[in-house]
Amino acid sequence: MSLDVEVYRRQGFGARLGVSGALGLLIVDFVNGFADPARFGGGNIVAAIERSAAALSEARRRHWPIVHTRIVFADDGCDANVFCAKAPTLLGLTESIPASAIVPELSPLPGELVVRKTAPSAFFETGLRSWLTQRKVQTLLVAGATTSGCVRASVVDAMSCGFRPVVLRDCVGDRLLAPHEASLFDMDQKYADVRPLDEVLKDLPG
Amino acid sequence: MSLDVEVYRRQGFGARLGVSGALGLLIVDFVNGFADPARFGGGNIVAAIERSAAALSEARRRHWPIVHTRIVFADDGCDANVFCAKAPTLLGLTESIPASAIVPELSPLPGELVVRKTAPSAFFETGLRSWLTQRKVQTLLVAGATTSGCVRASVVDAMSCGFRPVVLRDCVGDRLLAPHEASLFDMDQKYADVRPLDEVLKDLPG
Amino acid sequence: MSLDVEVYRRQGFGARLGVSGALGLLIVDFVNGFADPARFGGGNIVAAIERSAAALSEARRRHWPIVHTRIVFADDGCDANVFCAKAPTLLGLTESIPASAIVPELSPLPGELVVRKTAPSAFFETGLRSWLTQRKVQTLLVAGATTSGCVRASVVDAMSCGFRPVVLRDCVGDRLLAPHEASLFDMDQKYADVRPLDEVLKDLPG
Amino acid sequence: MSLDVEVYRRQGFGARLGVSGALGLLIVDFVNGFADPARFGGGNIVAAIERSAAALSEARRRHWPIVHTRIVFADDGCDANVFCAKAPTLLGLTESIPASAIVPELSPLPGELVVRKTAPSAFFETGLRSWLTQRKVQTLLVAGATTSGCVRASVVDAMSCGFRPVVLRDCVGDRLLAPHEASLFDMDQKYADVRPLDEVLKDLPG
């Protein structure tokens, strides 16, 4: 990858954003169905969930605004969309089935926003953007699955909206490692800082 | 890649969208600065521009709605954003420098929409979405650069907005082939059909 | 009002949009709490609900896409926003209380989209826009409450998004007649056609 | 109006937002064409421009982020939309004609954002929202024209986006006083604080 990085560096990509202003934590689609290799899971997703529990615990201790997302389609399928046309199995993620519930390790507490979505980005036609604005979030730490899917789409939107995204490298996972690594590379060069949780926390005041 | 495809197939991804309803053509950021390896170009971008000229010519012949995008920042830098914080060289793409102008081969004609943008997606805070709605576009053919950058971000948004994206495989390019191929794979599995121009045209009524 | 209309006419406002393309029906916030003068209701809202039942019945007969909206805030108040800061009583509209439920006369059927929202416009950070796009809606008939509030905000957005709004004059209501009439006037001049249901239906093919 | 206010008060509307966090100033569509009664002007618009010059001067002295909007359609009319279908004269507001230029009294300085728009709201498909987020604006003072048109649409969106709008009562104007007053009333009850400039400034630290 070193030759690749050199091309990006020469063209001016890959600067560091750093951490500034109020922080928030976004956890994308860590629901049972994405923890299960027989449904939408696999790869390093389970490991990423474990590390995200540490991120969530730290965010709670520091009273950061916290957001969880779930993919949820209507019971009668009336909100089926083009995403479902590419992946019809997504339509099975209805409100009350276990596969659409957030994994027990990351179960939301009162005061944490739970965003229901039907598109890759956590920002697309959801209340996330105005919620972060009202909480004055400027730097958004991002965990979740999949790295190359809903995490990446959410990170691109977070940046476009004016938030500074930090992808927690060990808190995001994908069903396969090749797209995971390719998206970490792209995000680190163009949209976000990509760093392990411990390193990010080390730089923060206690 | 075949093992990878198998995982996606088993989980329900990779269905075909097909071509239906009115078609439109979106050409993303084919400006001089992205055709020039000394600025933001390289890889297979110049070849993709050549093929896009064929796509554009066909779109004009068939009277499809046509959109071109350019990245343009204000002369005084007052609209600098987080994207520029990751890639400060982007700020140099101001309205009147040659690097921000659409390449001569694809020069827009009257009636074609030219979208100025400051974020990866052609849809982000631009007039593209309502413009396509008013023209009843349902299937959006996509050309442009870079595959892993502004093309991919635009394709994700096109799908989320309810348009059916078809990525013209030979009409999109990137500064390096690895991110180009990785994003083609992701898009074909989850967001769009990825097909060469000739194959798409062959299926259309004359 | 005739002198006023003359000013608008001279400046070029008030042209007719007409009805074209596929139609859809949007019913804004006709929930129990807005039918009840002791909560958010009053004025001509109950009469508008009665007429909207006729509109809904006709829409179902003609198989138009149908959307209902409800204002719903989270049980724990975690999505309180600036709208609630202006009107704190809105926060009481939680998912399961009767006041937030759609009135029995207009109860949604399977296949009709129910949009939960926390802002005036039915389009703001909701899935409505992409849903209408996918159903190819071009002309959007609008009923609901209040005329000067969520109806008007939704109509402005519908027009901006590229849909042609028709406000069904006898199917929208407000807690007071003065803001009702003022908003009908503004919408008819600048954003929508404002016409009674019967007149709109009369012009349609059977 | 006092009986009306009582209805709103009893239902819980009309609370004060106050001024908090960083301030910004938004000046909506104060261009020559809206200062001219022969085009889109009239009523109290010229008086509102005079007072807005005082607001702008104060905003510059205090180094607030400042935004101006203009309605601008493409020279070839390729971005004509439903707004133009209601008011075809708007299409004449092209980039280089004097009618679309900001009035000399309010001429933008470098560093102030100029938003081109083709819809009523300053937020609709423009870069305004992310720009305000990046500048940490929380309270948005609003001047401009027309009160019942683009000012009101922008205020509703500002509130929905999570900004606290303050409409500067003497810095907004409309071609007729009836819609001006009706929209001030609606905004004050539901979307914004409506206060004269002097009163707002008096409450701020020097």
Structure write-up:
- The first copy, chain A, is of the alpha/beta class.
- Chain A has one domain (21-202): 3-Layer(aba) Sandwich (Rossmann fold).
- The first copy, chain A, is 38% helix and 19% strand.
- Chain A is built from eight helices and six strands; from the N terminus they run αβααβαβαβαβαβα.
- Chains in contact: A-B, A-C, A-D, B-C, B-D, C-D.
- At the B-D interface, helix 5 of B face helix 5 of D.
Largest beta sheet of chain A, briefly?
6 strands, parallel
Biggest sheet: strand arrangement of chain A: 3-2-1-4-5-6
Beta strand % of chain A? 15-25%
| Annotated CATH topology of chain A | Rossmann fold
Provide the CATH top-level class of chain A.
Alpha Beta
* Class from helix and strand fractions of chain A: alpha/beta
Biggest interface, which chains? A-B, 48 and 48 residues
Overall shape of chain A: globular
CATH-scheme architecture of chain A = 3-Layer(aba) Sandwich
Order of helices and strands of chain A: HEHHEHEHEHEHEH
The helix content of chain A, as a percent range, equals 25-40%
* Contiguous uncertain segments of 5+ residues of chain A: none
Count every beta strand of chain A, where a strand is a DSSP E run of 2 or more residues: 6
CATH superfamily of chain A: Isochorismatase-like
How far is the N terminus from the C terminus of chain A?
A: 35 Å
Radius of gyration of chain A: 16 Å
Annotation field: number of helices of chain A: 8
Q: List the quaternary state of the chains.
A: homotetramer
Number of domains of chain A: 1
Average pLDDT of chain A, rounded to a whole number, is: 97
